[in-house]
Amino acid sequence: MTDPADSALQSTSRGTAGQHVPGDTARRHLSGVHTGQRASGDTAQQHVAGGAARQRVFVHEVCARDGLQMEPHFVPTDDKVALIDALSACGFARIEVTSFVSAKAVPALADAEAVMRRIRRAPGVVYAALVPNLRGMERAIESGADELNLVMSCSEAHNRANLRRDREASRAQLMQVLRGAAAADVHCHVSLSTAFGCPFDGDVPLETVRTAALDWWAAGATGITLCDTTGMADPRLVRRTVEALSRDLPIDALTLHLHDTRGMGLANALAGLELGVRRFDAACAGLGGCPFAPGASGNVATEALVHMLACMEVDTGVDLDALLRIGAALPALVQRPLHNPLLLAGPRTRRHPAPAEGVAAR
Ligand code: COA
Ligand code: ZN
Predict the structure, then answer these.
(1) How far is the CA of 290 from the centre of ligand 2 (A)?
(2) Which of 21, 103, 221, 293 could form a Cys-Cys staple with 317, CB 3.0–4.6 A?
(3) CATH no., domain 5-345
C-alpha cells in the first residue's frame, strides 16, 4: 500500500487492553446453538476477578464486505487484505471477508477469491463470506471460507432488486446451497434483509420475518441475522421482533445487523442487548450499505458499539485502541471523508490537559 492507511493498518497489533476472542469458542458456541443446545454460562459470560460474571457480546466485523460493497473507489486487493489482517488482530469472533456474487452486480468485491485466499488467518476467528447462490457457494468453499452467509430479503421488492428473483426462488436455491455446504462440512448462517422494513414495500409483517427465521433454523442454519438494511428499525420494533422470535428460537441463534441510516443504530442495538441478544454485526468507521436499496448508508460503527459496551462493562474481547487506529485509516482507503464522532472525540477515557488558569475554555 502506498497511502497513509498503510502504516496505520500494518502497525495495528493486539493491544494490552484487548483480549483475543478464541474463535473456537465462538464456533463451539455456534455449534452448540446449531444442535439446539443453549450456550453454557461459560461461553456466554466471562468470569472476572472476584468471581463476578460479566456479560459477553460477540461482535462480527462486516466492514470488508458490507462496508466496501458500494464504495465507488475500488479498494485494491492488497489494501483489502491488509485491512482484514489488521482486523484479525483486534479480537473479533467473526469477520465477514467478502461476497462471492456477480462482479457485474458488485464490482467493488470482484476480487473475492484473491482476498479470501491471501488473508492471514488468526487462530479461531471465523472468516465468513456472503453467498447468494450455488455458484457463490462453490467459489466461497474453494477459496476457503469458514462459514457462508446466505442472504435473502423479507420483502419481495428488495429481494428482486438485490437477487433478481422472487423470494420463493431465492429460498429454493439457498436451500440447495445449505445442503451443498453441509455436504462440504461448512456452516451456513442466514441473513434476512429488510427484516425491519423495506425501502420499496414499506413495513414488513412480523409474521413474515418470524416464518423465514424459523424456516431457516429448522433447515439447519447455524444462526439467523436480522438485517435493518436501510435503518427503518426503532427500539420498540427491535424489541417486538426479538421478543417474538425468541419465543421459538434460542436467543443466541439471533444476530442483529443494524444500519445507522437514521441515527438509531446504537439505540436499536441496546434494545436487542436488553433482551439478551449477544451477537451484533458492525462495520469499522460505520462504512456500508446495500447497493440495491435506495438511501442505504452505513452500519452501526463497530468502534461506537464496542465503546458503548465497554462503558456498560460488557465484554466484547475487542481491542478498541487497535480498532480506532484502523478506523482512522479508512478514509484514505476509500478515498472519501467519513463522519465518525468517536474518532473525533476519542473514547470517554481520553483526557485533555486542563487550560491554564485565566484562559477561558473553548
Ligand atoms: N459469482 C459470480 N458470478 C455470478 C454468480 C456468482 N455467485 N452468480 C451469477 N453470476 C454471473 C453469471 O455467471 C452470469 O454471468 P454472465 O452474464 O457473464 O453470463 C451473470 O452473473 C448472471 O447470472 P444469473 O444466474 O442470471 O444471475 P442474475 O443475473 O439473476 O443475478 C445474482 C443474480 C444474485 C448473482 C446477482 O444479482 C448478484 O450478484 N447480486 C448481488 C447481491 C449482493 O451482493 N447484494 C448486496 C449484499 S446483500
Ligand atoms: Zn448491511
Answers:
(1) 6
(2) 21
(3) 3.20.20.70
